[in-house]
Amino acid sequence: MKPMLRLRLVALALVAAVFVPQAQAQTADAVARGLQQRYGAIESLRASFVQTAGGQRLQGTLSVRDDAFRLDLGSQVLVTDGGTLWSYSRDDDQVVVQDYDPARVGFSVGQLFTNYLDVFRVTGASKATVGGVRHDVLTLRPRQSGSSVRDATLYVRSSDAVPTRVRVHDTNGGTLAFDLKNVERNVSLPASTFRFAAPRGTEVVDLR
Length: 208
Hints:
46% strand; alpha+beta; globular; twelve-stranded mixed beta sheet; 21% helix; disordered N terminus; single chain
């Protein structure tokens, strides 16, 4: 290979190394912003889901509005109005009440499904087909340092920006998976959805 040609190829490789990652980041951000314009129109969401973590598989229902959410797993219920968190165990007949801190639980379910760009920065974007349906796939990392979440992957239907799959990876190597079905957008959810009324006789442990 001629010396001049070799130098040109090296120069091109250096240019690619400097500018291609930046272009990819800009593309990912542009995809995320475009999705967010439609995704931001989701004021509330209700869905059934399957949660997989640590080899355990659970199913239940999810209701979300802004920072508030309600996860009902049958034997367990997790509810927050954005300020207070109720953790109820039907098996133990006990509810633990504490101040809600998204950092304590690793991430905010409500924010992940309604305004994820406030909590995460986008590091990658791609396309995938899930169940025969085209999706935009975003790779996310927490904006705040010290989070127990390493990264998250969000699958959003390309046609209407509805989320159908989430993978959250923690710093210990664990994975929390949500697969959503029967997703309803902008449903009417009364305030009582995001507060917990303990059944009569339930032990209440208040940690506030």
